[in-house]
Protein backbone atom coordinates (compact mmCIF):
# COMPACT_ATOMS: atom_id res chain seq x y z
CA UNK A 1 0.00 0.00 0.00
CA UNK A 2 1.28 3.48 -0.84
CA UNK A 3 1.85 5.73 2.18
CA UNK A 4 -0.38 8.77 2.40
CA UNK A 5 -0.19 11.98 4.44
CA UNK A 6 -1.15 11.20 8.02
CA UNK A 7 -4.50 11.98 9.56
CA UNK A 8 -7.30 14.46 9.04
CA UNK A 9 -5.93 17.61 7.36
CA UNK A 10 -8.60 20.02 8.60
CA UNK A 11 -7.29 22.85 10.78
CA UNK A 12 -6.12 21.60 14.14
CA UNK A 13 -8.77 21.51 16.90
CA UNK A 14 -6.09 23.08 19.13
CA UNK A 15 -6.95 26.42 17.47
CA UNK A 16 -4.97 28.89 15.37
CA UNK A 17 -1.22 28.47 14.95
CA UNK A 18 0.78 30.72 17.33
CA UNK A 19 4.16 29.06 17.59
CA UNK A 20 5.85 27.88 14.39
CA UNK A 21 9.06 25.86 14.25
CA UNK A 22 10.87 25.58 10.91
CA UNK A 23 13.43 22.78 10.57
CA UNK A 24 16.02 23.58 7.89
CA UNK A 25 18.47 26.33 7.10
CA UNK A 26 18.18 27.03 3.41
CA UNK A 27 15.88 28.44 0.76
CA UNK A 28 12.74 26.47 1.61
CA UNK A 29 13.07 27.38 5.30
CA UNK A 30 13.73 31.05 4.56
CA UNK A 31 10.86 31.30 2.08
CA UNK A 32 8.45 29.66 4.52
CA UNK A 33 9.40 32.22 7.19
CA UNK A 34 9.01 35.15 4.78
CA UNK A 35 5.63 33.84 3.61
CA UNK A 36 4.32 33.40 7.15
CA UNK A 37 5.09 37.06 7.84
CA UNK A 38 3.65 38.20 4.48
CA UNK A 39 0.47 36.36 5.48
CA UNK A 40 0.40 38.51 8.65
CA UNK A 41 1.37 35.69 10.99
CA UNK A 42 2.58 37.54 14.10
CA UNK A 43 3.25 34.57 16.37
CA UNK A 44 6.66 33.20 17.29
CA UNK A 45 8.90 31.64 14.60
CA UNK A 46 11.88 29.47 15.55
CA UNK A 47 14.25 28.20 12.85
CA UNK A 48 16.44 25.19 13.63
CA UNK A 49 19.38 24.75 11.26
CA UNK A 50 22.28 22.34 11.57
CA UNK A 51 24.51 24.64 9.47
CA UNK A 52 27.24 27.07 10.60
CA UNK A 53 26.16 29.72 8.09
CA UNK A 54 22.81 31.51 8.07
CA UNK A 55 20.55 30.47 5.17
CA UNK A 56 22.51 30.59 1.90
CA UNK A 57 21.98 29.59 -1.71
CA UNK A 58 23.63 26.43 -3.08
CA UNK A 59 23.28 27.57 -6.70
CA UNK A 60 26.68 29.35 -6.91
CA UNK A 61 28.57 26.52 -5.16
CA UNK A 62 29.25 24.65 -8.43
CA UNK A 63 29.79 27.89 -10.32
CA UNK A 64 31.26 31.05 -8.71
CA UNK A 65 32.32 29.45 -5.40
CA UNK A 66 34.11 26.53 -7.07
CA UNK A 67 35.74 28.94 -9.52
CA UNK A 68 36.99 31.03 -6.57
CA UNK A 69 35.01 34.13 -7.59
CA UNK A 70 32.40 34.05 -4.81
CA UNK A 71 32.61 33.79 -1.03
CA UNK A 72 30.23 33.31 1.89
CA UNK A 73 29.18 36.96 1.59
CA UNK A 74 27.94 36.29 -1.93
CA UNK A 75 25.93 33.16 -1.11
CA UNK A 76 24.23 34.13 2.18
CA UNK A 77 20.61 35.07 1.51
CA UNK A 78 18.72 38.08 2.89
CA UNK A 79 18.92 37.94 6.70
CA UNK A 80 15.90 36.80 8.69
CA UNK A 81 14.24 39.59 10.63
CA UNK A 82 15.01 40.13 14.32
CA UNK A 83 11.59 38.72 15.12
CA UNK A 84 12.70 35.23 14.12
CA UNK A 85 14.72 33.01 16.47
CA UNK A 86 17.40 31.44 14.27
CA UNK A 87 19.34 28.63 15.97
CA UNK A 88 22.41 27.65 13.94
CA UNK A 89 24.36 24.42 14.64
CA UNK A 90 21.12 23.04 16.09
CA UNK A 91 20.02 19.84 14.35
CA UNK A 92 16.54 18.49 14.89
CA UNK A 93 17.19 14.94 16.07
CA UNK A 94 13.65 13.70 16.62
CA UNK A 95 9.98 14.59 16.52
CA UNK A 96 7.31 13.83 19.11
CA UNK A 97 4.03 14.62 17.36
CA UNK A 98 1.89 13.65 20.37
CA UNK A 99 3.51 16.39 22.46
CA UNK A 100 4.16 18.70 19.49
CA UNK A 101 7.87 18.87 20.25
CA UNK A 102 11.00 18.89 18.10
CA UNK A 103 13.96 17.27 19.84
CA UNK A 104 17.41 18.88 19.63
CA UNK A 105 20.70 18.40 21.51
CA UNK A 106 19.96 21.75 23.21
CA UNK A 107 16.59 20.50 24.46
CA UNK A 108 13.01 20.12 23.18
CA UNK A 109 11.32 22.90 21.22
CA UNK A 110 7.51 23.13 21.34
CA UNK A 111 5.45 23.99 18.26
CA UNK A 112 1.85 24.17 17.23
CA UNK A 113 2.80 24.59 13.58
CA UNK A 114 5.79 22.82 12.03
CA UNK A 115 7.52 23.32 8.66
CA UNK A 116 9.76 20.47 7.53
CA UNK A 117 12.44 21.96 5.24
CA UNK A 118 15.44 19.74 6.00
CA UNK A 119 16.26 19.30 2.31
CA UNK A 120 18.64 16.68 1.04
CA UNK A 121 22.31 15.70 1.17
CA UNK A 122 24.67 14.38 -1.49
CA UNK A 123 24.27 10.70 -2.35
CA UNK A 124 27.50 8.74 -1.91
CA UNK A 125 28.67 5.59 -3.68
CA UNK A 126 31.99 5.02 -1.89
CA UNK A 127 32.76 2.75 1.04
CA UNK A 128 32.88 3.83 4.69
CA UNK A 129 36.70 4.16 4.61
CA UNK A 130 36.66 6.48 1.57
CA UNK A 131 36.58 10.26 1.93
CA UNK A 132 34.39 10.74 -1.12
CA UNK A 133 34.31 14.26 -2.51
CA UNK A 134 30.83 15.67 -3.06
CA UNK A 135 29.36 19.16 -3.43
CA UNK A 136 26.32 20.09 -1.36
CA UNK A 137 27.31 22.59 1.33
CA UNK A 138 29.38 25.77 1.32
CA UNK A 139 32.13 23.90 3.19
CA UNK A 140 32.10 21.20 0.47
CA UNK A 141 32.57 24.02 -2.05
CA UNK A 142 35.59 25.44 -0.22
CA UNK A 143 37.16 21.99 0.18
CA UNK A 144 36.59 21.09 -3.46
CA UNK A 145 38.00 24.42 -4.57
CA UNK A 146 41.13 23.69 -2.52
CA UNK A 147 41.46 20.19 -4.03
CA UNK A 148 40.94 21.62 -7.53
CA UNK A 149 43.83 24.04 -7.01
CA UNK A 150 46.18 21.09 -6.52
CA UNK A 151 44.77 18.81 -9.26
CA UNK A 152 45.71 18.67 -12.94
CA UNK A 153 43.05 16.11 -13.81
CA UNK A 154 39.46 15.76 -12.57
CA UNK A 155 37.02 12.91 -13.00
CA UNK A 156 33.35 13.64 -12.31
CA UNK A 157 31.11 10.66 -11.63
CA UNK A 158 27.61 11.61 -12.79
CA UNK A 159 26.66 13.89 -15.67
CA UNK A 160 23.47 15.52 -14.41
CA UNK A 161 23.19 19.29 -14.04
CA UNK A 162 25.47 19.32 -10.99
CA UNK A 163 28.17 17.00 -12.41
CA UNK A 164 28.28 18.91 -15.68
CA UNK A 165 28.51 22.27 -13.87
CA UNK A 166 31.46 20.97 -11.83
CA UNK A 167 33.05 19.72 -15.08
CA UNK A 168 32.47 23.12 -16.68
CA UNK A 169 34.07 25.04 -13.81
CA UNK A 170 37.03 22.62 -13.73
CA UNK A 171 37.50 23.24 -17.48
CA UNK A 172 37.59 26.99 -17.03
CA UNK A 173 40.34 26.44 -14.44
CA UNK A 174 42.39 24.60 -17.07
CA UNK A 175 41.94 21.06 -15.71
CA UNK A 176 41.83 17.89 -17.78
CA UNK A 177 38.22 16.76 -17.25
CA UNK A 178 36.45 13.42 -17.68
CA UNK A 179 32.75 12.81 -17.00
CA UNK A 180 31.61 9.23 -16.52
CA UNK A 181 27.94 8.23 -16.50
CA UNK A 182 25.56 5.37 -17.20
CA UNK A 183 23.92 7.17 -20.13
CA UNK A 184 24.77 10.18 -22.32
CA UNK A 185 24.86 13.11 -19.85
CA UNK A 186 21.82 15.41 -19.86
CA UNK A 187 19.78 13.43 -22.43
CA UNK A 188 17.34 12.27 -19.77
CA UNK A 189 16.89 15.80 -18.42
CA UNK A 190 16.92 17.86 -21.61
CA UNK A 191 16.25 15.40 -24.46
CA UNK A 192 18.80 14.11 -26.95
CA UNK A 193 18.90 17.25 -29.13
CA UNK A 194 19.81 19.66 -26.31
CA UNK A 195 21.81 17.04 -24.37
CA UNK A 196 23.86 16.33 -27.51
CA UNK A 197 24.37 20.06 -28.11
CA UNK A 198 25.67 20.67 -24.58
CA UNK A 199 28.00 17.65 -24.82
CA UNK A 200 29.38 18.91 -28.14
CA UNK A 201 30.14 22.30 -26.61
CA UNK A 202 31.67 20.55 -23.55
CA UNK A 203 33.79 18.28 -25.75
CA UNK A 204 35.03 21.35 -27.65
CA UNK A 205 36.10 22.75 -24.26
CA UNK A 206 38.11 19.56 -23.71
CA UNK A 207 35.77 17.30 -21.69
CA UNK A 208 36.05 13.56 -22.32
CA UNK A 209 32.89 11.48 -21.79
CA UNK A 210 32.97 7.83 -20.75
CA UNK A 211 29.76 5.77 -20.74
CA UNK A 212 29.56 2.70 -18.57
CA UNK A 213 26.46 0.57 -18.26
CA UNK A 214 26.52 -0.81 -14.75
CA UNK A 215 28.16 2.09 -12.94
CA UNK A 216 31.56 2.57 -11.33
CA UNK A 217 33.38 1.60 -8.16
CA UNK A 218 35.59 4.17 -6.44
CA UNK A 219 39.17 2.95 -5.82
CA UNK A 220 41.66 4.27 -3.25
CA UNK A 221 41.59 5.38 0.38
CA UNK A 222 41.12 7.70 2.05
CA UNK A 223 40.64 9.76 -1.13
CA UNK A 224 39.56 7.90 -4.27
CA UNK A 225 42.16 8.24 -7.03
CA UNK A 226 40.57 6.01 -9.65
CA UNK A 227 37.30 4.40 -10.66
CA UNK A 228 36.67 0.98 -12.10
CA UNK A 229 33.81 0.63 -14.54
CA UNK A 230 31.54 -2.42 -14.59
CA UNK A 231 33.25 -3.54 -17.81
CA UNK A 232 36.66 -3.46 -16.12
CA UNK A 233 38.06 -0.11 -17.35
CA UNK A 234 40.20 1.76 -14.85
CA UNK A 235 40.10 5.57 -15.04
CA UNK A 236 42.49 7.63 -12.91
CA UNK A 237 42.49 11.31 -11.96
CA UNK A 238 44.07 13.58 -9.34
CA UNK A 239 40.60 14.51 -8.12
CA UNK A 240 37.46 12.40 -8.26
CA UNK A 241 34.11 14.04 -7.48
CA UNK A 242 30.81 12.20 -7.08
CA UNK A 243 27.71 14.00 -8.35
CA UNK A 244 25.27 11.11 -8.32
CA UNK A 245 22.11 12.63 -6.93
CA UNK A 246 20.78 13.48 -3.50
CA UNK A 247 19.12 11.79 -0.53
CA UNK A 248 16.33 13.53 1.45
CA UNK A 249 17.17 14.27 5.10
CA UNK A 250 14.40 12.30 6.81
CA UNK A 251 16.28 10.14 9.33
CA UNK A 252 15.48 12.54 12.17
CA UNK A 253 11.78 11.76 11.62
CA UNK A 254 12.21 8.05 12.38
CA UNK A 255 9.61 6.89 14.88
CA UNK A 256 7.53 10.06 14.49
CA UNK A 257 4.77 8.26 12.60
CA UNK A 258 4.97 10.71 9.70
CA UNK A 259 4.70 9.16 6.23
CA UNK A 260 8.17 8.85 4.70
CA UNK A 261 8.79 7.24 1.31
CA UNK A 262 11.83 8.65 -0.51
CA UNK A 263 11.02 11.95 1.22
CA UNK A 264 8.24 13.25 3.46
CA UNK A 265 4.91 12.60 1.80
CA UNK A 266 2.76 15.71 1.33
CA UNK A 267 -0.79 16.19 0.09
CA UNK A 268 -1.81 18.64 -2.66
CA UNK A 269 -1.40 21.55 -0.21
CA UNK A 270 2.01 20.40 1.09
CA UNK A 271 0.50 19.10 4.35
CA UNK A 272 1.98 16.06 6.08
CA UNK A 273 -0.19 15.75 9.19
CA UNK A 274 -2.33 18.18 11.22
CA UNK A 275 -0.19 21.24 11.96
CA UNK A 276 2.74 19.93 9.89
CA UNK A 277 3.75 20.90 6.34
CA UNK A 278 6.84 20.15 4.24
CA UNK A 279 8.54 21.83 1.29
CA UNK A 280 11.61 21.69 -0.92
CA UNK A 281 14.03 18.84 -1.54
CA UNK A 282 12.70 16.86 1.45
CA UNK A 283 9.11 16.70 0.18
CA UNK A 284 7.62 14.06 -2.07
CA UNK A 285 4.10 13.97 -3.50
CA UNK A 286 1.95 11.53 -5.41
CA UNK A 287 0.94 12.24 -8.99
CA UNK A 288 -2.40 11.29 -10.53
CA UNK A 289 -1.18 7.79 -11.44
CA UNK A 290 0.02 7.20 -7.85
CA UNK A 291 3.74 7.59 -8.66
CA UNK A 292 5.90 9.42 -6.12
CA UNK A 293 7.47 12.67 -7.35
CA UNK A 294 10.18 14.79 -5.77
CA UNK A 295 11.34 17.98 -7.50
CA UNK A 296 14.78 18.87 -6.15
CA UNK A 297 15.27 22.36 -7.61
CA UNK A 298 15.60 25.91 -6.37
CA UNK A 299 12.36 27.17 -7.88
CA UNK A 300 10.37 24.28 -6.50
CA UNK A 301 11.80 24.89 -3.02
CA UNK A 302 10.67 28.53 -3.21
CA UNK A 303 7.23 27.90 -4.69
CA UNK A 304 6.45 24.90 -2.50
CA UNK A 305 7.57 26.69 0.68
CA UNK A 306 5.16 29.53 -0.10
CA UNK A 307 2.33 27.05 -0.59
CA UNK A 308 3.25 25.09 2.55
CA UNK A 309 3.32 28.21 4.75
CA UNK A 310 -0.10 29.26 3.47
CA UNK A 311 -1.51 25.78 4.08
CA UNK A 312 -0.16 25.83 7.64
CA UNK A 313 -2.09 29.03 8.34
CA UNK A 314 -5.20 28.61 6.19
CA UNK A 315 -5.75 24.83 5.86
CA UNK A 316 -8.23 23.90 3.15
CA UNK A 317 -8.65 27.58 2.23
CA UNK A 318 -5.04 27.71 0.99
CA UNK A 319 -4.50 27.17 -2.75
CA UNK A 320 -3.58 23.73 -4.06
CA UNK A 321 0.15 23.60 -4.93
CA UNK A 322 0.93 23.50 -8.65
CA UNK A 323 4.67 23.43 -9.32
CA UNK A 324 5.84 25.50 -12.28
CA UNK A 325 8.55 22.87 -12.95
CA UNK A 326 11.07 25.59 -13.84
CA UNK A 327 14.80 24.90 -13.50
CA UNK A 328 18.03 26.03 -15.09
CA UNK A 329 21.72 25.29 -15.42
CA UNK A 330 24.75 27.32 -16.47
CA UNK A 331 27.69 25.47 -18.00
CA UNK A 332 30.24 25.76 -20.80
CA UNK A 333 29.01 29.27 -21.65
CA UNK A 334 25.45 27.96 -22.06
CA UNK A 335 22.48 29.27 -20.13
CA UNK A 336 19.85 26.51 -20.26
CA UNK A 337 16.38 27.18 -18.84
CA UNK A 338 13.58 24.67 -18.87
CA UNK A 339 9.97 24.21 -17.80
CA UNK A 340 8.30 20.84 -17.65
CA UNK A 341 9.02 17.45 -16.17
CA UNK A 342 12.13 16.87 -18.34
CA UNK A 343 12.98 13.72 -20.27
CA UNK A 344 11.33 15.07 -23.46
CA UNK A 345 11.05 12.42 -26.15
CA UNK A 346 11.69 12.77 -29.88
CA UNK A 347 12.67 15.82 -31.90
CA UNK A 348 11.62 19.24 -30.54
CA UNK A 349 9.62 21.86 -32.39
CA UNK A 350 11.72 24.98 -32.91
CA UNK A 351 9.87 28.04 -31.58
CA UNK A 352 12.74 30.45 -32.26
CA UNK A 353 16.41 30.40 -33.33
CA UNK A 354 18.34 27.15 -33.70
CA UNK A 355 20.89 25.15 -31.74
CA UNK A 356 23.25 25.53 -34.73
CA UNK A 357 23.33 29.31 -34.32
CA UNK A 358 23.77 28.95 -30.55
CA UNK A 359 20.42 30.38 -29.40
CA UNK A 360 17.21 28.34 -29.48
CA UNK A 361 13.75 28.08 -27.96
CA UNK A 362 12.43 24.52 -28.27
CA UNK A 363 9.20 22.74 -27.32
CA UNK A 364 8.08 19.11 -26.97
CA UNK A 365 6.00 17.51 -28.33
CA UNK A 366 4.75 20.50 -30.35
CA UNK A 367 4.22 24.25 -30.28
CA UNK A 368 0.48 24.18 -29.54
CA UNK A 369 0.51 22.02 -26.43
CA UNK A 370 4.09 21.91 -25.17
CA UNK A 371 4.80 19.71 -22.17
CA UNK A 372 8.45 20.74 -21.95
CA UNK A 373 10.04 23.98 -23.18
CA UNK A 374 13.82 24.54 -23.20
CA UNK A 375 15.66 27.80 -23.90
CA UNK A 376 19.37 27.59 -24.74
CA UNK A 377 21.15 30.96 -24.61
CA UNK A 378 17.79 32.45 -25.51
CA UNK A 379 16.53 35.70 -23.95
CA UNK A 380 13.04 34.41 -23.02
CA UNK A 381 12.65 35.24 -19.31
CA UNK A 382 11.64 32.49 -16.84
CA UNK A 383 8.17 34.00 -16.29
CA UNK A 384 7.42 33.80 -20.02
CA UNK A 385 8.67 30.20 -20.19
CA UNK A 386 6.34 29.29 -17.33
CA UNK A 387 3.45 30.99 -19.13
CA UNK A 388 4.13 29.01 -22.33
CA UNK A 389 3.60 25.81 -20.39
CA UNK A 390 0.69 27.11 -18.32
CA UNK A 391 -1.10 28.18 -21.52
CA UNK A 392 -0.76 24.63 -22.86
CA UNK A 393 -1.96 22.92 -19.69
CA UNK A 394 -4.84 25.30 -18.90
CA UNK A 395 -5.78 26.42 -22.42
CA UNK A 396 -5.58 30.05 -21.20
CA UNK A 397 -3.84 32.51 -23.52
CA UNK A 398 -0.55 33.81 -22.12
C1 LIG B 1 25.96 22.82 -5.90
C2 LIG B 1 24.50 22.96 -6.22
C3 LIG B 1 24.10 23.76 -7.26
C4 LIG B 1 22.75 23.89 -7.57
N1 LIG B 1 22.38 24.67 -8.63
C5 LIG B 1 21.07 24.76 -8.96
C6 LIG B 1 20.67 25.53 -10.10
O1 LIG B 1 21.48 26.10 -10.81
N2 LIG B 1 19.32 25.59 -10.36
C7 LIG B 1 18.39 24.94 -9.60
O2 LIG B 1 17.18 25.01 -9.89
N3 LIG B 1 18.74 24.22 -8.50
C8 LIG B 1 20.07 24.10 -8.19
N4 LIG B 1 20.44 23.35 -7.10
C9 LIG B 1 19.40 22.69 -6.29
C10 LIG B 1 18.90 23.63 -5.19
O3 LIG B 1 19.96 24.26 -4.54
C11 LIG B 1 18.10 22.81 -4.17
O4 LIG B 1 16.98 22.26 -4.85
C12 LIG B 1 17.64 23.69 -3.00
O5 LIG B 1 18.77 24.06 -2.23
C13 LIG B 1 16.64 22.96 -2.11
O6 LIG B 1 16.36 23.77 -1.01
P1 LIG B 1 15.82 23.19 0.39
O7 LIG B 1 15.76 24.35 1.30
O8 LIG B 1 14.62 22.38 0.14
O9 LIG B 1 16.91 22.13 0.85
P2 LIG B 1 18.46 22.28 1.18
O10 LIG B 1 19.07 23.33 0.32
O11 LIG B 1 19.02 20.91 1.13
O12 LIG B 1 18.47 22.82 2.68
C14 LIG B 1 18.10 22.03 3.77
C15 LIG B 1 18.67 22.68 5.00
O13 LIG B 1 18.24 21.97 6.16
C16 LIG B 1 19.37 21.66 6.99
N5 LIG B 1 19.05 20.44 7.74
C17 LIG B 1 19.01 19.17 7.27
N6 LIG B 1 18.64 18.31 8.26
C18 LIG B 1 18.43 19.07 9.36
C19 LIG B 1 18.03 18.79 10.70
N7 LIG B 1 17.75 17.54 11.09
N8 LIG B 1 17.93 19.80 11.58
C20 LIG B 1 18.20 21.08 11.19
N9 LIG B 1 18.59 21.41 9.94
C21 LIG B 1 18.69 20.42 9.04
C22 LIG B 1 20.49 21.50 5.99
O14 LIG B 1 21.78 21.63 6.56
C23 LIG B 1 20.18 22.66 5.04
O15 LIG B 1 20.60 23.88 5.55
C24 LIG B 1 21.78 23.20 -6.79
C25 LIG B 1 22.20 22.38 -5.73
C26 LIG B 1 23.53 22.25 -5.44
C27 LIG B 1 23.97 21.36 -4.31
From TrEMBL:
UniProt cross-references to InterPro entries, sorted A to Z: FAD-oxidoreductase/Apoptosis, FAD/NAD-bd_sf, FAD/NAD-binding_dom, FAD/NAD-linked_Rdtase_dimer_sf
Coiled-coil annotated spans: none
Pfam families, per database record: Pyr_redox_2
Known cofactor(s): FAD
Keywords, sorted A to Z: FAD, Flavoprotein, Oxidoreductase
Residue ranges annotated for the FAD/NAD(P)-binding domain, each copy included: 19-305
Protein name: FAD-dependent oxidoreductase
UniProt organism field: Blastococcus carthaginiensis
Amino acid sequence: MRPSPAGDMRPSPAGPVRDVVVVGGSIAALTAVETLRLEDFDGRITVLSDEDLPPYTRVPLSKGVLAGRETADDVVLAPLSDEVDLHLRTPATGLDTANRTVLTPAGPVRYDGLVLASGARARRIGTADQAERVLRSYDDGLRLRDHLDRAASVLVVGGGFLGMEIASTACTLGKEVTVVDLAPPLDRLLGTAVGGHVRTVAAQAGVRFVLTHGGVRLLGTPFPTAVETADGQRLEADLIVSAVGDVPNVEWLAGSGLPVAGGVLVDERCRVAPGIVAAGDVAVSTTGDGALTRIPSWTNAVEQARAAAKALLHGDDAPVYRPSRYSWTEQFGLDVKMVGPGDPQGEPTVLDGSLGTGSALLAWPDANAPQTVVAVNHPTPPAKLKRLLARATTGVAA
